[in-house]
Amino acid sequence: MFKRTLSDRLCEAVKTFYAVSLVGPRQSGKTTLLKQLFPDYQYINIEDPDTLAKIQLDPRGFFADKKKKWIIDEAQEYPDLFSYLLGFIDSNKEMGQFILSGSKNFLLMEKISQSLAGRVAIFELLPLTYQELSTDYPVQENNIWDLIYKGFYPGVYAHQSPVDLWYKSYITTYIQRDVRQLIQIKDLSKFYLFLRLSAARNGQLINYSEIGTACGASHTTIAEWINLLEVSYITFRLQPFYKNFNKRLVKTPKLYFYDSGLVCHLLGIEGAEHAQIHASRGALFEGYVISEILKHYMAKAQTPHLYFWNNNKGFEVDLLVERREALNAVEIKASSTFSKSFLKQLNQWKDLGEEAKTSDTTLIYTGDESFTLSGNEILSYRKIDHYFP
Q1: Residue ranges covered by each domain of the chain
Q2: Which of 110, 118, 232, 322 has the fewest CB atoms in 10 Å of its CB?
Q3: How many other CB atoms are there within 10 angstroms of residue 115's CB atom?
Q4: Which fold has domain 7-124?
């Protein structure tokens, strides 16, 4: 059982909102967390045929006991339920009466926005952060490439599952259940090829036409599929930063996967040693760092403002973070040995103008030492949580 950073915010929300919703990717630990935090709630899963039949027969009677509070899993599987929930909430006016969760996030959020807007607090639970994992798992015994290969889904660690088998099962379930239902695709093998092609472009600018040509689909189809990966919390788009500077900038977003273990499986990487020497090692570590920072914000129910910088002339900063009304420039290097040359881009960044000159600069690398050099913060991957105030 992992201690999740989001726990405190969830416990606060049930005291101040009529309903709470927890969304996120499959197997991120949503149901486990809700059962752990709220043991006095009655748990039901709408995907269970018997439970669904009872609710459909008499929805009002099923939830008639006002003393009970409910965790409803996969609520989107019975769309009519949301109208009844609205009636219960408006008549009872009791805080935290319902907690909703589900694996088909798009469908769940659609129903919530239609029926429960203004009455529900919405939270997102992603795979574990390094900090959450290290609380209950001896990560100090692992190097970064062990962690990148295994990824950060709780099930990989909680059940000691073979990593390759776990991710194979995960992808099969995702494609067979979520993808087939949401976009009704006939050729699932083509979507699996698209997944692998996307993993090979982790950390790169998105080119819909290039991916479409490689897997035999139109660029509009690829755009639709990437949107699906986003609403499923498989990938996210990192937008370019182009405010207050010159106009000769890249304005195409980059594609990143939330979980490095999933990328490794899709790339056919067979272990930590393989990941360490793979051609994608730099992108794997870069994606891990950016995802880790993103997860830290979302674990505190905060909105992250993350970007990258590229001026179309080969000068790029891996990550820009807007926080405390200031910019923070982050350079990411997949090297365990620090070199002053790693600071070249950050020093060049400071010459762009007053806003850049006054920004904080951070280098994150795969080494174990953390220190400060010439105004730059040098952080070990183990200390990313120190990046946050």
Answers
A1: 7-124
A2: 118
A3: 19
A4: Rossmann fold (3.40.50)
